[in-house]
Specification:
Layout: H1 2-14, H2 16-21, E1 25-30, H3 35-50, E2 53-58, H4 61-70, E3 79-83, H5 84-92, E4 96-97, H6 112-115, E5 124-136, E6 158-160, H7 167-177, H8 186-194, E7 201-203, H9 207-214, E8 220-224, H10 228-232, E9 238-240, E10 248-257, H11 263-274, H12 276-284, H13 299-304, H14 309-314, H15 320-337
Parallel strand pairs: 1-2, 1-3, 6-7
Antiparallel strand pairs: 3-10, 4-10, 5-8, 5-9, 5-10
Length: 340
């Protein structure tokens, strides 16, 4: 009888139920965007490869960072993807750890701007986008960000509200064109304030711009490259500007939660996501622009994404510290000079 019990216990230890009980679990926190594509391209293949289970939590940045902070003493999230500025905010609050890039076999394949976006070793970029000006090439010529404020053009311009993702980057580049690179953005906000009654709209959703351009209510608007595809379908000539001051944009990064009990698994997942194969599949689906410089894209995908080494080198991103330290001042200045 005793031997039978021992044999039964041994069989149970080898059973699927026991194996499932010992299954590794990785909890990730991501944007809600394109989750069906991420499941097919990233999540399911990684689970099959690692023999583990992925728990995916989604939400906006504010909600997700708040959850990380609320559970700081006993983390429930192992790895997250956030913006550059949010990564620095998390670092300042001691919510994330340095990333051991020696464990990322694909780290060397990244564009330089993605390897250590905040210069503190706490994040790795996985996608970025350019912000420039979409404009009617038959109506105007854009050589500088300051051209948006020319008397003959300003009455046909839509500009992003400061509260949007595109607002501060566009203001940053407008400031460069006006000879001011101060992070308080006072100079460009003041310049917009002087023209506020002439500008068509200070938009909050880029989706409204395609119709405005089709109806010829606007000729130009600063946009993120991820919004460009809609403009290419218009039956009017629209071009993507390459101003002499350069393009700006944004970057999303990966971070590892401080105190995570699954650090090695989190790094494996990050490395999988950064691989040439996965970055290519996401890019071809127009989900993310690739941070992996080995990715080769079809012409159609390349035209709709931020792609290529030359583009990566040309991007002038707002330093995260400048964004965090000046957000309140930007909003105050905007409300005073531009209003809603």
């Amino acid at each position: 009888m005793k031997n039978a019990l021992i044999a039964s216990a041994a069989l149970l230890a080898l059973s699927p139920l026991a194996a499932k009980a010992e299954e590794k679990t990785l909890t990730i926190s991501v944007y809600a965007f394109a989750q069906d594509d991420f499941k097919t391209i990233v999540y399911d293949p990684f689970e099959a490869k690692c023999g583990c289970k992925l728990v995916v939590e989604t939400g906006n940045s504010v909600e997700r960072l708040a959850k990380m902070e609320a559970n700081k003493a006993s983390p429930v999230i192992d790895m997250a993807v956030v913006s550059m500025a949010d990564a620095l905010s998390a670092s300042r609050k001691h919510l994330i750890d340095k990333i051991d890039t020696s464990k990322l076999s694909n780290f060397g394949k990244l564009y330089d701007l993605a390897k250590d976006p905040n210069g503190d070793g706490m994040s790795v970029g996985y996608t970025f986008y350019a912000t420039s000006i979409a404009y009617r090439s038959d109506k105007m010529k854009i050589e500088s960000w300051a051209d948006l404020l020319k008397p003959e053009y300003v009455g046909h311009v839509a500009f992003p509200n400061v509260t949007t993702n595109q607002g501060p980057p566009a203001l940053f580049m407008l400031g460069q064109a006006l000879g001011s690179d101060h992070p308080d953005l006072k100079a460009p906000i003041e310049a917009l304030g002087e023209k506020k009654d002439e500008i068509v709209t200070f938009y909050e959703k880029s989706s409204q711009l395609v119709q405005l351009m089709q109806q010829e209510e606007i000729w130009a608007a600063p946009i993120g490259r991820f919004s460009w595809a809609g403009f290419t379908k218009l039956d009017v000539p629209v071009a993507w500007a390459t101003p002499k001051e350069g393009q700006t944009g944004g970057m999303n990064v990966m971070v590892v939660t401080k105190g995570s009990k699954n650090r090695d698994l989190a790094l494996q997942f990050m490395d999988f996501w950064l691989s040439t194969e996965i970055q290519t599949k996401l890019a071809e689906k127009l989900v993310d622009s690739p941070a992996n410089k080995e990715v080769k894209l079809s012409e159609e995908a390349a035209n709709n994404l931020t792609y290529g080494e030359e583009t990566a080198k040309s991007l002038k991103l707002i330093p995260s510290a400048a964004a965090l330290d000046n957000r309140a001042a930007w909003l105050k200045e905007w409300n005073e000079k531009v209003g809603q």
